[in-house]
Design a protein that fits this description.
Blueprint lengths: L9 E2 L6 E5 L8 H16 L17 H11 L6 H17 L13 H10 L3 E6 L3 H10 L8 E4 L3 E2 L2 E2 L3 H11 L3 E2 L1
Parallel strand pairs: 2-3, 3-4
Antiparallel strand pairs: 1-7, 5-6
Helix pairs in contact: 1-3, 2-3
Length: about 180
């Protein structure tokens, strides 16, 4: 486990039957939309024309804020909490603006049948994402997957009274919402 990720101990109920899913790339494919929204956000807020997001080194578990900071660092631009928040806000507004492009056609093959199968078997389904809540909710709603999930958790939410720092905490927030408690 990376040193910057600190897991909280959790007390786990006996034999829980849950399935956790990350949204992007696992349930839906909207990478072109994200790419367009990121590019416009970086151009409008930081005057950066991103050439290739793949050339930017990221740590596993990065949330939107961590991603924004990595891009700013890559292009040797000033990074501050205010700038990062402006980038996240611009990116979120762009995804919402392009939201009509998101449809059930973005759901990956086999996902709906698999989710139906799990629900019939009594499995509690959980959706998590490093995206802000507004985007995660939009993706689930526009793809008509929202009704499958009992619990959701996103990077823009709070965990133990503070902003989420990494994706591990997104997962831990989902577990707390399922009734598991740090122990």
């Amino acid at each position: 486990m990376p040193r910057d990720v600190k897991a909280q101990k959790m007390s786990i109920p006996k034999k829980p039957v849950i399935a956790l899913f990350d949204i992007d790339g696992t349930l839906v494919s909207v990478s072109a939309l994200h790419d367009k929204a990121y590019r416009q956000a970086f151009l409008s807020v930081a005057n950066i024309r991103v050439k290739d997001f793949n050339e930017i080194e990221l740590k596993f578990g990065t949330t939107e804020g961590g991603f924004m900071k990595a891009v700013l660092n890559h292009y040797k631009k000033k990074s501050s909490p205010a700038i990062i928040q402006r980038l996240i806000d611009a990116y979120t507004q762009n995804v919402v603006r392009f939201g009509r492009e998101i449809t059930p056609k973005n759901v990956l093959p086999g996902v709906v049948n698999f989710l139906h199968y799990l629900k019939r078997k009594g499995v509690t389904l959980v959706a998590i994402s490093g995206n802000p809540k507004k985007i995660g909710d939009l993706l689930l709603k526009r793809t008509k997957l929202n009704s499958f999930f009992t619990v959701t958790a996103f990077s823009s939410e709070t965990f133990l009274g503070r902003s989420i720092q990494n994706r591990t905490e997104v997962l831990q927030l989902a577990l707390l919402r399922l009734g598991w408690r740090p122990g």
